[in-house]
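Structure ticket #2291
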Amino acid sequence: MTEVFHKQLVSLSKHCELLTGYPFKSSHFSHSLQDIPLVKGENLGHREIDWIKAVRWPASEAKDFEKFELNPGDIVLAMDRPIVQGRLKFSWIRNYEPLALLVQRVARLRGCNGLTTDFLRYLIASPAFQSHVEKITTGVNIPHISGKDILSFSFALPPCETQKRIAEILSNYDNLIDNNNRRIALLEESIHLLYKDWFVRLRFPGYESVKVVDGVPEGWKKKTLQDIVSPIRQSIHPSNIEANTPYVGLEHIPRQSIALTNWGYSHQVNSNKFIFIKNDILFGKIRPYFHKVVFAPINGICSSDAIVIRPLSKDFFGLALALVSSISFVDYTSKTSKEGSKMPRANWDVMEQYPALIPNSKLLEDFNNLVSLATNQITNLIFMNQRLIQARDLLLPRLMNGTITV
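Resolution: structure written out below.
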């Protein structure tokens, strides 16, 4: 079986159904959550789809485009700028993700004629396929690939039973990673709900017996953001940065998530950067409406396009994180941002004046302990996922080329 696996090369064109998307007109785009999300190239990352910034198509018109529906298991691959920062832009539709429609310049792939779609997913994820994409990419302003060139990829096709075993082994890693990501999302939600209950609705423990005057509970103080945090502008030259220091650019900071799950390293740096330490808060100041706010699970350096925010005391960490990552604060920052030559930038002089209610020391400590418990769990899940990703990515090429038999 192993000998056949190694020697018989086949073309993807014989074993894959490829469909490119439809040129949906932007004039009909919707932002209603009741409508159908469109998967565009800009929504694709490496093994993930950014549903947050997906535009939508009216649900009332969706039946006219059933051909372009994406079903669970379907693989999607960006055809414009297919590789960004050395990583292939592709993903697949998970069972829990919404019904979506495929947009032009994105390819939908499904296995056929003895190639299972599950195995195809890992074939697309393999270093061999990415190397193929690098070779077939053309264009200067917009690097791109064609459907014909995608299908010219040659690979060793194992028997279906072997395909199923390989996909099962690798999907076990992906399932664990997905589960951990969902746990991270739930922990984030718990922080935001807790903040809303305690500091917006004023439903903190014991609120029934506390008098509120002008929106301020008795024993609380009405302050501003500058009373609980300070911006850190500690710059460092590339020549002074230690090797393998984690580096966070704006491209690493996710939208509407406080969990920093990905970062680069200092060898990518060629200009001055800011230093941050664990549990600092990083706020993306360019186009702040993108809502890029995270807490740092590590020490490292970051782009000067991020504001490094440090709590004035450890008990202010939870309040500071919940406040600056809240929708209301990000909206405020966006509306008061400075208009740059190309894009707006957050204005710290205005941001630091944002109102902040500070409870008595006991409630502040309790809130911080609850938030810190959640962020510690998030940090543990981030590093657990990194270990799972590393193990999966070591196994993947060896399973795919038959070095490891199953």
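Closing remark: The mean pLDDT is 95.
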